[in-house]
Amino acid sequence: MGAPSSTGHAVAVIGGATAGAEAAGRLAEHGCNVVVFEQNPRPYGKIEDGLPRWHVGLRNKEYETIGEKLSRPGVEFVPNTTIGEDLGFAELCREWGFSAVVLACGAWRDRPLPVEGADAYVGKGLIYQNPFIIWFNHSHEAGYAGESFEPKDGAIVVGGGLASIDVAKVLMLETTRAKLRERGIDVDLVELEVKGIPKILAGHDLVFEDLGLEGCTIFYRRRPEDMPLVEIPEDADEKRAAKVRTARGRLLEKAMDKFRFKLEPLSAPDGLIVEDGELRGLRFRRTRIEGNRVVPTDETYERRGVYVISSIGSIPEPIPDIEMKGELFAFTDWELGRLEGYPNVFSVGNVVTGKGNIVASRKHAGQVYEAALASYLGLGEDGHRGESALAAGTEAVREQTDQIADRLGDLPKPSPEATVSILEKAHARQKDVGYDGDYAAWIDKVTPKVA
Question: Which domain holds residue 381?
Fold first, then answer.
């Protein structure tokens, strides 16, 4: 264990992934003693469990970046520790003696499908995005024991953001690979994603129609140009806003051509189609857009599918002792994520924005422009694969963390004895979970092997 700084503040960071690691590393640079509490064995968060595994280069690069920051002097990593279960939030904030506590625990819970009674059919025709992508990213690992899903042709995807496109791509890539295997053709997943379905098929003298696939369809309550693939700057005039909407449509068309999924716009889920106790489809209500509002019409229609995947957003998991306001924490200050009754708590990243996608976190992720999104969506073959978009989010967290450090500058620092007490508690928890302070050895030990 490293020796504590006798001059700095002591700060807890809840969540060790992109936002948490960036905050921890930055605070350590400011001379703070930082304890990072991570709920999982590995601190990779949505990079590991939300970013589809075809982003091989980006995932590995971010793993290295997170590890470098969590291994810095002044940072203590505490894995397998869920705040609210293994350690109370109020206890951490009020009894441990930390100068500040930074929430960086992301958004892990799926926003419920907005149809009454829908959740009764989870596992009976209704699938949520987060467990589906977690399965896709980990099912090839030895010892995987989570939920299992089978990509099937003809799925209904309810969504409209980047995450729903990821779900559609998983379905299209995997059903295409299955059809090719029937013909004795084995295609690598990453190669298929990079080159696209039509190009790979052409190399085998095939077209998509030869496969006999219907494809999946994304049902979106707004128009194609409203899909938030590129953010419209807050100060944009109508000319600039129109240009962004055009870029959105262009990106969406390219993605649909390359991966062969379909889109049904102006359609909001309105009812369930249930047969023999299973969800077989949805009734949709046609909508229209008035200004920025979604207005339901009197027209409805039905669509059946092999199953429904809901991908309408991710929200934070509730934490005991934190008041909720709707689906989000009841922040009194949305810039720095302040909480009533916890003057030493700040928040960064998706836990504030309520978005689980690493490249679409409103102000906290900066403005994501066409080139970055094109790379993320897999519409180019330049090898960058979303690095620009992720960098924008990291820069936003860096700026937030500097503001937090500035706030701490006016507070009295804990005594050396208080800091030692905090670190002794952290070391005791590390011992309880089997972590001996060697980050690299721990990661090697807990990294799953490919089956």
Answer: 10-107+315-446
Cα radius of gyration (the chain): 23
- The bridge status of strand 126-128 relative to strand 156-158 is unpaired
Whole-angstrom distance, CA of residue 254 vs CA of residue 229: 12
pLDDT per residue as tens digits for the range 408-443: 877 888 888 999 999 999 999 999 999 999 999 999
- Give this prediction's pTM: 0.90
On whether both 305 and 332 belong to a single domain, the answer is: no
Same domain, 434 and 374: yes
CB 1 within 8 A of CB 423: yes
The residues pairing with 155 across neighbouring beta strands, listed in sequence order, are: none
Q: How far apart are CA 97 and CA 174, in angstroms?
A: 50
Reduced to 3 states (helix: H, G, I; strand: E, B; else coil), residue 126 is strand
Residue type at 84 in one-letter notation: G
* 225 CB-contact burial (10 Å; exposed 0-12 / middle 13-18 / buried 19+): middle
DSSP single-letter state for residue 159: -
Q: What span, in angstroms and rounded, lies between the C-alpha atoms of 302 and 209?
A: 25
* The last residue of a domain, from among 269, 287, 312: 312
Q: What is the pLDDT of residues 42-101, one digit of tens each?
A: 999 999 999 999 999 989 999 999 999 999 999 999 999 999 999 999 999 999 999 999
What does the alpha-carbon distance between residue 386 and residue 372 come to, in Å, rounded to a whole number? Answer: 6
Are 157 and 294 found together in one domain?
yes
By CB atoms closer than 10 A (0-12, 13-18, 19+), residue 427 is middle
341 and 364 belong to one structural domain: yes
150-to-133, 135, 155, 389 alpha-carbon distances in Å? 12, 10, 11, 30
Task: Copy the structure tokens of residue 323.
Answer: 């008041």
Other C-beta atoms closer than 10 Å to the C-beta of 274 total 15
pLDDT in tens, 288-311: 999 989 999 999 999 999 999 999
Same domain, 85 and 191: no
Q: Assign residue 217 the CATH number of its domain.
A: 3.50.50.60
- Extract long-range pairs of 319-324: CB within 8 Å, 24+ residues apart: 319/83, 319/84, 319/89, 319/105, 320/84, 320/88, 320/89, 321/84, 321/88, 321/89, 321/90, 322/89
Q: How far apart are CA 419 and CA 12, in angstroms?
A: 12
Same domain, 142 and 253: yes
CA distance 441 to 443: 6
Count: domains in the chain: 2
Q: What are 170's two structure tokens?
A: 């998983």
